[in-house]
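Marked as duplicate of an earlier ticket. Keeping the data here for the record.
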Amino acid sequence: SVAEGMVQAVAGDPLRQTLVLSVGDLATDGNVEDCWQIEHFDRSYPGLQAMLGSLPFQACMGNHEMAGLLFAKYFPYPFAGGRYWSFDYGPAHFTVIDQYTAYGPGSPQLAWIEADLASTTKPWRFVLLHEPGWSAGGGHENDPDVQTYLQPLFAAHDVSIVFAGHNHYYARAEVEGVEHVTTGGGGANLHTPNPAYPNVVQTARAYHYCTVEIDGGRLRFRALAPEGTLLDSLTLLAPTGVAGSAGAAPARVPVLEAAYPNPFNPSVAIRLSLPEAAHLRLAVHDPGGRRVAVLADSYRDAGEATFRWDGLDERGRLAASGVYLVRLEAGPFRTSRKIVLLR
């Protein structure tokens, strides 16, 4: 199970600097006590019980928590109002949003969110909410209130990652420098993501969990299947100018710049830079993860380079119109960019 995979991953971390973040929907009907006992506290799921019994657990409200009375009973967090609050953990600040208490213009929650993000001195800022502003369809559409009211605050206050659920799959979107991660693969029946949705750079119809590792000014994010298969990865640098980041260790990582033109036909230029010499692999994949073309696979010195894809697959055939992912691997670093071919 996903929980068992998480427990095993933690057991392999001797430092144990770990907590669990949940994006809600902990029970099918959060108003019914039996649902909590059968689904969340069921002793026949030893992995889940081991996780709850050994790791700090923080969760936001999901729509299935209903009125939230039992959610507040089992998880009596220090709510600032409604079921929203924030907390610090090491160099990170977490803002937990309750989408079932008003958060539009003039609401106490929106004012609190803005003040909370503005006042933290932590270099890494994360947001937990349930219904994503940018996801990949297939279950529920993007939440326009997140896009209209919350995203401007996230961008203005250097939020690194927004974690959401609601849709039962994995997806990651990039919006104005903010990563929006949909991590809804905890155990319910899976939905099918559409990788062509706006701003989406990676999807997977898979059960999974995500990990975040922070080392000074560098953050490593990974999405993993329960058995450890890597679904997605990302390396971020602490935003410059953020209070608390001045003393962070400098982090120099490869950069995969935006492709141009995009959409394209017949060819696209892909520019990247390596801060140090490394084995570089640059490849084009279709949304299902199948390799379409390899643009580079060799040891390269530090510096900038531009590669071009002519829209042909490995057999020299014209690739079909659609969404593709350019994946960069340089040493342990992994990242990707979405490109669109229009014939």
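See parent ticket for discussion. Residues 255-341 form a domain with the Immunoglobulin-like fold (CATH 2.60.40.4070).
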